[in-house]
Amino acid sequence: MSTTTETPTDWTVHNAVAAPAPIKAFNAVLGVGDGKLSRRLFSLDPAGICAAARKSSGLDDLGPPTFWDGLVALTSALEDAGPTPMGRVAMRKMLVDALAARARVFAWAAEHPEAMAKPVLPQLMICGLPRTGTSYLSFLFGADPHNRTLRYFEAPDPAPPPIQGREDEDPRMIASFKQLDGLAKLAPGFQAMHPMEPAAATEVVSLHMHEMTSMQVETQAHIPAYAAWMDAQDLRGVYRYEEIALKVLQHGYDSTRWSLKTPAYLAGLDAVFDVYPQARMVWTHRDPADVVVSVSSLNAALHQVMTKDVDRVVVAHHWLERLAGMVDRAMAYLDAHPDAPITHLHYADLTADPLGSVERVYADLGFELDDDARAAVTAATQHHRQDKHGRHRYRAEDFDLDPAMIRDRFAAYCERFDT
Questions:
Q1: In the chain, at which end, N or C, are there fewer CB atoms within 10 A of the end residue's CB?
Q2: Four-residue CA torsion sign, 304, 306, 310, 314
Q3: Can you give the pLDDT at residue 33?
Q4: pLDDT higher at 403 or 305
Q5: Are strands 147-149 and 123-128 parallel, antiparallel or unpaired?
Q6: Residue 267 and residue 323 in contact, taking contact as beta carbons nearer than 8 Å
Q7: Residues 6+ apart with CB under 8 A from 367
Q8: Contacts of 218 (CB under 8 A, 6+ apart)
Q9: 277: helix, coil or strand?
Q10: Up-side HSE of residue 124: CA atoms within 13 Å toward CB?
Q11: Which ranges in 337-410 belong to alpha helices (H)?
Q12: Chain center to CA of 317
């Protein structure tokens, strides 16, 4: 099964998403009468989703009810986003699957107190805005055999933990290939915009979905009310859940440390370091004029898969402020904690010298890159080469954005980090 795309080479917000005939027919049939039938058949009612998760998992206990407020906020926001009938199916499945996975995590943890009694492995974390090389850097860190990286196939459903050396036999691995192939049919340009592979590193926001406090779903629908709700939360809770899931996943592995990444770390560095006092972090940087337009292109394209009447200008201006707010919070944390164990890496340096960038980050954070790790990282630079799946093209004018306006909003960031 292949998740690569050869043609066309260039992908934009205009051609990245396709609507196969069966999906068009499904949306047409169930969208009649303002979608009343699809709302009844595929309800986003929070209580109904919990009931479906219990049935799916075969477990009555979904864990502590700390997810409930997030589920209520999220389902309300998703309704406001105007999902298509197929989008509603996908949204409901996403939420049910996340809570079912949460139930399995807590059940496995209760059955394995010895695993929960062990400390979580030390953490090598990647933050930085989306489109600043965080995924590429996580692929390189993931190649280091000393690192236990969170992988795409296991992140949505961590329990039971995979068996080291037998991951290819794991049903979740096989299912993830099928999932990515399905996504390629709906959004053939997605891999060029955001490459993913079943055995490669992925973002911890997949784990955060189990707590219903996750930026992952923001990429799939325009849900500003939910974003505002998340900004008002104490994020320590979501990282405490993340820690439990990591303890599950590290069981049976002989790794030295975790390699973890998400831009979402920027929005709550205080919570991250409170839960993970051993964490060491690299913050990636890039010209925000490129970042905001690229993020807007990616998210507007993904919104078209799930929702009706996507206004890409509205999406872009939301993300301009969303990303700027994340950076503002992170810089405020640095002001209050100037000795925080965070090093910095520019996108241009990473792409120009990937191996040298990894070596410098490791040296800055006190890690060793031995010969085996160096060879593995070198091989990963070729496997995960840029534009492997095509080129993501984007223009500020497609989103009523102006580079000067973006840089003005990020003026303090640009000056501080020379972007």
A1: N
A2: negative
A3: 65
A4: 403
A5: unpaired
A6: no
A7: 124, 257, 280
A8: 226, 227, 299, 322
A9: coil
A10: 29
A11: 347-352, 354-365, 371-383, 403-409
A12: 20
Q: Hey, which residues does 97 pair with through a beta bridge? A: none
Mean pLDDT of 238-263: 97
CB 221 within 8 A of CB 303: yes
By CB neighbour count within 10 A (0-12 exposed, 13-18 middle, 19+ buried), where does 137 fall?
A: buried
Parallel, antiparallel, or unpaired: how do β-strands 280-285 and 391-392 relate? unpaired
Query: Angle formed by the axes of helices 85-111 and 288-306, to 10°?
Result: 100
Q: Could you tell me whether strands 257-261 and 123-128 are parallel, antiparallel, or unpaired per DSSP bridges?
A: parallel
Nearest to 154 by CA among 252, 82, 7: 252
Q: Where are the alpha helices (DSSP H) in 122-268?
A: 134-143, 171-186, 190-193, 205-208, 224-231, 236-250
**Integer CA distances (angstroms), 43 to 51, 72, 229, in order:** 12, 13, 22
Q: What angle do CA 404, 408, 412 make, to 5 degrees?
A: 140
Among residues 411, 368, 390, the alpha carbon closest in space to that of 257 is found at: 368
Average pLDDT over residues 345-366: 97
Integer Cα distance of 367 and 304 in angstroms? 42
HSE, side-chain direction, 13 A CA sphere, residue 360:
15
Long-range pairs for 382-385 at CB < 8 Å and ≥24 separation?
A: 383/139, 384/136, 384/139, 384/140, 384/195, 384/200
Helix axes 32-41 and 21-30, enclosed angle (nearest 10): 90
CA gap 53, 45 in Å, rounded? 12
User: Cα 290 from chain centroid?
Assistant: 19
Q: Nearest Cα to 284, choosing from 208, 226, 335, 360? A: 360
138-192 per-position pLDDT tens digit: 999 999 999 999 999 999 999 999 999 999 999 999 999 998 888 888 778 777 7
Q: What are phi and psi of 194, to 5 degrees?
A: -150, 85
- Spatial separation of the C-alpha atoms in residues 53 and 103, rounded to whole Å: 8
